[in-house]
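Let's practice the habit of predicting before peeking. Look at the sequence and jot down your guess about where helices and strands might fall. Then scroll down.
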Amino acid sequence: MALFKKKDKYALSKKELARFDGKPLQYAVERVDGVERILGKNGGIAVLNDVIVVMCEAHEVFRCRIEGSVVAELLSGNGVEISGTDDYSGEKRYVIAHYSYYRK
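Done guessing? Here is the structure:
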């Protein structure tokens, strides 16, 4: 019975995740054993029905399910941290996506 299931205190609601949908990215990196590896540049974030997708240079570099993932904005406000299980490889990944700002 899922009626009395404990709520995950780190889980974001659909409304909170909608803030990240469509955000343009300057670049995205993945942290592995304390070393950052660049995944790509010039992309965006898409929040679909049940997945979060990070796109760079028209290629999908990261996809994870919303359920079981942790999404948090950086303290500086210019990026987001996404950690979750990759849909394709099945391994736990930690991706940091930095927003791009356009001044007018």
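How did you do? The two ends are 53 Å apart (CA to CA).
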